[in-house]
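Fold sample X.
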Amino acid sequence: MTVSQKNATMFNQKFIIKPAGEEHCQYAETITNEMEQSAQARGTGIAKRSPEYIKTKMREGKAVIALTNTGEWAGFCYIEAWGHGKFVANSGLIVSPNFRKFGLAREIKKEVFKLSRKKYPDSKIFGLTTGAAVMKINSELGYYPVSYSDLTTDEDFWKGCQSCVNYPILMSKNRSNCLCTAMLYEPKNVKKAEQKKLSSEFKKNLSLFERLVNIKRSMFLNFAKGKEALVKVKDKVNQS
C-alpha cells in the first residue's frame, strides 16, 4: 500500500465516539502512556494521571472514548469538576498517533463538551492548553480567552499542575500566568463586548493562536533563563 493509499484509508476510517464505561477500562494504561509520551514529545507538561484514575472516570460516565469500528483505541478525553461543580474542565485530550491529523480531536472535544453540558448544565467550562489547535477548537465551541483569575480557585486543581515541567514558571508568577492559555465557556451567554470581539478574532485563523502561543513561550522561557542566570551570579558572589 502506498502512502497516499494509506492516507486515503485513514481518512475514510469510521470512528465510534461515545461516553466511556466499564468495558473500556482495558484501554486505561494505553491512554495514560500515550498522554505522557505526547507531552514529552511536545516539550510541555500535563497533570499526570494513573490508569486507575482514568478507569474511575470511565466508570463514573465522565469520559469520552473514540474507537475504530474494529475496536482499536483511537482517542480519549475526560471531565473534571472543581469548586463543588461551579467549574468543569475537559482534560486529557489525546488521540492515538495512528489517527492524528484527520479531525478526530475536534470530534472528541465536541462530544465531551456535550457530555459536560449534560452533566453540569450550570457550570462554567474552562481549559488550559499550550496547543494552538486545541485553542481553535475551544473557540469554535464558544470558549474565549480569560486570565487565570477567572478560573477555579480550587487548590486540588492547581495541585495537578505540580507534575508539569512548567510548574516553576506558574509559581514564579503567583499562579497568575504560565505557558498555557486559559479559555472559558459560560453557560449564560453574558460575555462583555471586548470578550466577544476577542473570541471572534480568535476564530478567524489559526495563525493568531500560533502567534499567541509562540509569544508566551518565548516570554516565559526568557524569564526562566534570566532567573536561572541571576541565581548563578548570586552563587558566584556568595562563593567569592
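Fold sample Y, listed below.
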Amino acid sequence: MEEQQYSETHNESVEVDELTEEGRARLRKEQAEMRAHRKPARGLVIINTGNGKGKTTAALGVLFRAWGQNMRVVMLQFLKSQTGKWGEIRAAQKMGVEIIPLGEGFTWNSDNLEHDKALARQCWQLCREKIESNQYDIVIMDEITYAINYGWLDVNEVLSTLQARNPKMHVIITGRDAPQALIDYADLVTEMTEIKHPYHEGILAQKGIDF
C-alpha cells in the first residue's frame, strides 16, 4: 500500500517507458531510496498561483479531503463577498466546516479602495488569530496574494506568522502573482497555466463550475 501511495503521488504522470519492466524496476528503486531517507512529517506551506483557473478549487479539494480525515480546517477568503452564497459556502455549512468570506467582491470593480484595504487587514488579522490559536490542522488563505501585491499587507508580516506557527500546521495560499519571498519559503508551489478559457469565447461564470 505504501509503495502504491508513493507511486500515485510521486508519479502522477507516468511515462511510457516506465511501464516496461526496466521502468518499473527503476521506480521501485526510487521508492526504496525515498523510504530509506524519508523525513518526519511536518506542516507544509502550499501555494497555488498562476494565471490559470483552479487555484481556489484545488485548495477546496484539500479542504474536503482533510475534512474526510477528521482534520480541523478553515478557509478565509480575501475577495469573496461576505453576502455571497457560493457553492463552497453552502457545502461548508452542511458539512460544518468554516469557510469565511471577508471581502466585498473583486477590487477592480470597487469605488472605495480604502474600504477594501481595511477589509483585507481585517481578514488578515482573523487569519493570524486562526493560525496562532493552534486549533486547526489546515488554514487556507484564499486570494491573499492580491492584498500583498496591492501593498495592503506586508509580506514579511505574513512570513513571520508562518514561521511562528505550529510546525505541524499546514497553510495553503492562493492567488495570482505570488510574491517571490513566499515562493522561496513554501514547500509546494503549483502554477496554474491557462491554455484555454471559455471566457474568451463569451461564456461567463457558471453555477457549480465557478461559484
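Sample Y note: The beta strands are 45-49, 73-81, 98-103, 138-142, 170-174, 188-191.
Also: The CA atoms of residues 72 and 136 lie 5 Å apart.
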